[in-house]
Each structure stands twice: as C-alpha cells, then as structure tokens.
Amino acid sequence: MQLKLKITRGVEVKLARGSQNDPVYYGGPPPETGVWKLSMTKIEDYFEAALQDLHFGDSIDIFVLGFEIADLEGWGHIFTSMSQYTSYRPKSKLVISVGQLNWPDVKDLSATEQFQRFSVILLEAIARVATMKRKPKSFNTAAFLAEVTRLLALCPASEMEESEDT
Asked: Is residue 23 part of a domain?
C-alpha cells in the first residue's frame, strides 16, 4: 500500500525551505507571517517505508491525500468547494481524499503542533472513504485507518521537521 501526498497551497503559505514543485495559487488574501515547518517529503517517505508490505484489500493500492493549505476563508470557493472531495479511481486502484488546513490556524504553531493538526486531517480524509457513494468494494478502510493512526502515534514529529541547513 502507498500513501501519497498531493499538496496545493495558497501563495500566503511559506514553507520552511522555500518553494517546492506543488501548485501555488496567486491572487488570494494578503501574505501572512508564519511558516509551515514540516517536510511533506519526509512524511511521505515515512509512510512509504511503513506501508510498503501491507495490503488492505484488492481495490486500492494507493491512497492520495489531497493536502490543501491556505487561508481558506480568504480564498473562498477556490479551496472551500473541495473540502469534502473524495474520488475512487478503479482503473488506477487509487483513491483521493482531500484534507484541508486553514493557514491562519497553523502558521505560528510548532512543528509538533502542525504535525498533530496534519494527523487529524489525514485521518479524517481516510475515514471519509467509508462514506463514499461509489466506494471501493474490496478495501478495508477501518484496518487502513487503524494502521495509519498507529503509525502517526509512533512517528516522531521532530524528525518530520524541515531541516534549515539544506
């Protein structure tokens, strides 16, 4: 099983090491202070190693968290319209579920606090799969949710922090 992160962010979201190759929306609310301290690459690598030999049914091989972080109210419909988006792609054995963080709520938090908020939206996005109208027939959402919950509890947030020296 794979857990992938697809990041979309508003221009006001400052990453610890500057820009990455994620979509950035321009023209929304004014820039904010604060910084996103977590390395999404490190988080994705952590889950890749932990989940590589696990299977939760035949329908899904890849879970994609559509991670959106922005001043959600400031951007309005561009982001808020996607807040509950979940999609099953049977040909790709993939499910996409969106999880959003409101930038003003997390911009000044420590890396550990940001990781806690990220963990909540990840678990909510996984749980939403069980409520889909067109859900995967052979996917044990509860078992996947339990395993990701366990892995999040074991994950040292300090190791997910973006290093400043690179």
From this structure: no
